[in-house]
TrEMBL record:
Keyword presence, Transmembrane: yes
UniProt cross-references to SUPFAM superfamilies, sorted A to Z: Family A G protein-coupled receptor-like
Pfam family, one: 7tm_4
Membrane-related topology note: Multi-pass membrane protein
UniProt protein name: Olfactory receptor
Highest taxon, organism lineage: Eukaryota
Chief place where the protein resides: membrane
Alphabetical list of Gene3D superfamilies matching this protein: Rhodopsin 7-helix transmembrane proteins (1.20.1070.10)
Database matches in InterPro entries: GPCR_Rhodpsn, GPCR_Rhodpsn_7TM, Olfact_rcpt, Olfactory_Receptors
GO MF, one annotated term: G protein-coupled receptor activity
Record's keyword terms, sorted: Cell membrane, G-protein coupled receptor, Membrane, Olfaction, Receptor, Sensory transduction, Transducer, Transmembrane, Transmembrane helix
Similarity-based family: Belongs to the G-protein coupled receptor 1 family.
Length: 318
């Protein structure tokens, strides 16, 4: 009998972050504010980059992609979590769980690849500035963007393919606030050791390799900055520091969760909160508040909007 036909579970129960009604209400308010800030913050970055032609460079092209992925990544899990805070029984259908896992890993893996590409972009800009626009031309940027999305799709399909082919006949409780591959395969009615090793080899290896590549890239950048002028060195270091902060927060979760077999730790949920909600919120803060070009472009956009509104006021009064 095929493994799919042995699956009797039609829905899963998400344990969530808390079972206390008062705590859940407090968490609902907190994460609602966080989610709205994610949408607004990343949305402003995308609109500002699109509107200001001075930001139509490879760096900001990838940064707008990062903001888009962060919005999608948080939307996969946070709205469902918010809804579950207001219910007693937190259930998700088998199909909904599979869909959530697919898009979670699609956006997460794509972001890992994007962060790696952004490190390469900074390496070329800082270490080979004379040929930067030649190396990172529009065609290359589009090709890199397409490649990372394709890589994320292949990665996600591989994980979901391994997961849905397992038989699920109970139990149904997922020890988290969203569906993810490690806690789901623990519920399978079969030995999953081989699958767990494959997941570690897939997700864990991708995370570790990309992290090593990123660290090496920034190591080379830091060495090359020794002979730069103070102002140029300060700006480059600021950009690299912002990028490394995002990388550490995001890849830290991936390495912690996916570089080991499916063993639950009490810290898993806390780490998952940072992965799904906090990191997408920090990205616009880090890149906007630490980036002079973004701040100037944002102020320019706001001034233009205020000017346009003042221009329309006399016309509306006529």
């Amino acid at each position: 009998m095929p493994a799919q036909n042995q699956t009797l579970v039609m829905e899963f129960i998400l344990v969530g972050l808390s079972s206390n009604p008062r705590t859940q209400l407090v968490l609902f308010v907190i994460f609602l504010v966080v989610y709205l800030l994610i949408l607004v913050g990343n949305g402003i970055i995308m609109i500002t980059i699109l509107h200001d032609r001075g930001l139509h460079t490879p760096m900001y092209f990838f940064l707008s992609n990062l903001s888009f992925i962060d919005i999608c990544h948080s939307t996969v899990t946070v709205p469902k979590m918010l809804a579950d805070f207001l219910t007693t029984v937190k259930t998700i259908s088998f199909e909904g769980c599979v869909t959530q896992m697919f898009f979670l890993h699609l956006f997460a893996c794509t972001e890992i690849f994007l962060l790696t590409v952004m490190a390469y972009d900074r390496y070329v800009a800082i270490c080979n500035p004379m040929h930067y626009l030649t190396v990172m031309n529009h065609k290359v940027c589009l090709l890199l963007a397409g490649t990372i999305w394709l890589g994320g799709t292949v990665h996600s399909l591989a994980l979901i393919g391994m997961t849905i082919n397992l038989p699920y006949c109970g139990p149904r409780e997922v020890d988290n606030f969203f569906c993810d591959v490690p806690p789901i395969i623990k519920l399978a009615c079969t030995n999953t050791y081989v699958i767990e090793i494959l997941i570690v080899s897939n997700s864990g290896l991708i995370s570790i390799v990309c992290f090593v590549v990123l660290v090496v890239s920034y190591g080379v950048i830091l060495v090359s900055l020794r002979n730069r002028f103070a102002e140029g060195r300060r700006k480059a270091l600021s950009t690299c520091a912002a990028h490394l902060t995002v990388v550490t927060l995001f890849l830290g979760h991936c390495i912690f969760i996916y570089s080991r077999p499916s063993t639950s730790f009490s810290e898993d949920k806390v780490v998952s909160v940072f992965f799904t909600a906090i990191t997408p919120l920090l990205n616009p803060i880090i890149y906007t508040l630490r980036n002079e070009d973004m701040k100037r472009a944002l102020h320019k956009l706001l001034r233009q909007k205020v000017t346009a509104e003042k221009t329309l006021e006399p016309l509306e009064s006529m």
